[in-house]
Amino acid sequence: MTSHTTTPLEYKTEQSQMNILGFWVFLGAEIVLFSTLFASYFVLEHNTAGGPAGQDIFILKDVLIETFILLTSSFTSGLAIHSMRNHDKKGVLIWMIITLLLGAGFLYMEINEFIHYVHEGATIQTSGFTAAFFTLLGTHGAHVTFGIIWISLLLVQLVRRGITEKTSSKLFISSLYWHFLDVVWIFIFTFVYLKGMVM
Amino acid sequence: MSLDEFFVTGDPLILASQIAIGLTMVGLIALITYLKRWKWLWNEWFTTVDHKKIGIMYILAGVLMFFRGGVDGLLMKAQTSRPGLDLLDAQHYDEIFTTHGVIMILFMAMPLLIGIMNVVIPLQIGARDVAFPKLNAFSFWIFFAGAMLFNLSFVIGGSPDAGWTSYFPLAGKEFTPGVGNNYYAISLQIAGIGTLATGINFVVTIIKMRAPGMSWMKLPIFVWTTFITSIIIVAAFPILTIALLYMTLDRLFGTHFFTVAAGGDPMLWLNLFWLWGHPEVYIVVLPAFGMFSEVIATFARKNLYGYKSMVYAVAGIAFLSMLVWVHHFYTMGNSAAVNSIFSLTTMMIAIPTGVKIFNWLFTLRKGRIEFSTSMLWALAFIPCFTIGGVTGVMLAMAAADYQYHNTMFLVAHFHYVLIPGVVFAVFAGLYYWWPKMFGFKLNEKIGKWHFWLFVIGFNMTFMPMFFVGLDGMSRRMYTYAESTGWGAWLGFSAVGSLVMAAGFAALCYNIYWSFRYASRNVGNDPWNARSLEWATASPAPHYNFAVVPEVENLDDFWYKKKKGTLGLKKSDLKPVHMPSNSWTPIVLAGAFGLVGFFLVFEWIPLAIIAAVGIVVGLVANTFDYDDGYHIPVDELEEEEREWRGDLQ
Description:
The complex is a heterodimer of chains A (199) and B (648). By secondary structure, chain A is mainly alpha-helical. Chain A is built from 6 helices and no strands. Chain A has a domain at 81-198: Four Helix Bundle (Hemerythrin (Met), subunit A) (Up-down Bundle). Chain A has helices at 14-44, 54-57, 60-85, 89-119, 128-161, 165-198. Chain B is mainly α and 648 residues long. Chain B has a single domain (36-644), classed as Cytochrome c oxidase-like, subunit I domain (Cytochrome C Oxidase, Chain A, Up-down Bundle), CATH 1.20.210. Chain B has helices at 3-6, 12-34, 38-46, 51-79, 90-124, 133-152, 180-208, 221-253, 266-300, 307-321, 336-348, 350-364, 373-396, 398-404, 408-438, 444-470, 487-517, 556-563, 584-600, 604-622, 633-644; strands spanning 576-578, 629-631.
């Protein structure tokens, strides 16, 4: 960070620094959480008990669009943080609202995808495979939902209070969370969908 | 569901408890109302964010749960004291050993240790509070909600009865219908959230809030063990979260994670449970090691021998603790190679643990040992724990474990690890830090009664279990035939458990006696101790330190005390920033408890309605911009003069 000689706004107070570090530690716990979900999925992925397997139901096109939407939303949330550091409140609002819309679009597609699976005869009760699949995907989807609500509430605070030391650290933390969800999705895309369609 | 199914009926023991619980509740509410203490309770305790008060509440909850878990233990001992007794039937015995295990590990050991950590850690690092005081209050209340929900099972709906490990398929709906195991899955989930939050809180507190000059190798050893324990919590508890989530889904929503019928795998439960469960052993035992180290150094009047090797040993144990989980199920059909690897990693833990034992012994060597009650606990710990450790190495040999597994030998082994390793430590810590919490010492004479009764009772109770175990008595047997010849051993063991219970009663009496009669004039440093928490008043003021101390040495307080440079300059006083009380933690935890209760009974619509309470609490919390308040200088000066006499 040679170009920035001053501390970024979100790191100004000691409490903000601690909040951000605390959130990193929390993300460490989240990594363990998702690793456990992935590990269980790998244990159960071939236990279809006569029900549909991954390659029977996955639709690559839809998953690719979902991936594209979510990756873009990570980029726009980055732009929002960039605007925040430039004290551009309007920019933050615009980019964050785009991020949230993309997140909502992702959720919409994922829910449709789930409905499609249920029609194909793959419910969460069908087999060990579907239980692990829906729980892994569902946990990620629940995180996205939580993120959308959380960031919306932060935007209300931003409108009311402007870009302050406190709102900026809150927004920065929420963007870390959003990027994290993206990273998890990349693993889901690779090790659930691509692997499921090839093997 | 009829009322008859909702309340557990038909057992005189449970009926008596229901009446006792009802009367106690009514009595407590009446008493508090009569004394007009509701407002005081709400303002001083229920909404507090002060780490010391939160710690005291944890300790109180832990002692209560110790009583509950202890009664379970006594009932088991009574049932097996003679062959062929039918004091408890098989079902009731199953419920009791299940709740005994869960309560003792998760609702007794954990809160007692976390309670002491809460009181002591910020003081030892010279901080004003933990990094996230409000989150800390939330951790306590949600742990408490989980603990109360678990205890409710006893009178409402029925206790879990599949063992504290709740192995599948036994723990599934097919073999364990009813709500008992729902209680297990959901109350542990709720309490686990609090533990994870505590872990995160302490990691950040210790990284960020150390007093100026307190580098990593100048940290008191208890801070080190707490730090590493917190890291294990962050690394292990999410695994439990997921395992319990799967259990809940299997039981409530008919998924097949663990049921073979539709492609589930019961071994997945075992692996996940012990991937969390083994590190959990070290989560409870490492802070205890830290406490012993502090107590031994103080009462041997020497610095801790091999401080650095102690730190590395703790870190090594933490690392190895994640690599040994398969030793809990050697006999479940793993290949010889897998068993050998886990046998090896398990035995490796004995190396750093041995390092620690030798460090304690060398600290004692040539020390001027003072046999205070807390020192006695630390001294008794060393041989008792070594018995636990040596039998652990016996169990670690996979081939030999085919003989011992699931016998009373194993039960005796882990009681020999956990009781000296955790309970003795908590007792040592309570006697040691009691003045810092309350401003008076516990009575030493009653303390010695407590010590001798408990230690003798402990050995009487668990030593015979090694022998009946080697003789083939499997664990969880609710009765046995006279021809086995175990009657004499187990009768002796039951007498021992009564002696141990008398020891616990002595502790309770000691607390009562000392509250009434002990001298309030103990000063800030009653034990002539070494670490920073003794540099401030006893009980510690709510702001901890009027001026944040500057640290130059390991055992800085000891050196400054010898040099006589501990005074406080009036000119150094500045207003102190403090966090405000908050109602969100207790209300939010209450909402979690309510949702949990409805989920236990699978009343999903009600659970969804109650979940609105959680959402409201979280929204209120994110809009909370309370920045706390400042204590003015003259208030600090007045409080400091009260115990220092005068300022420089």
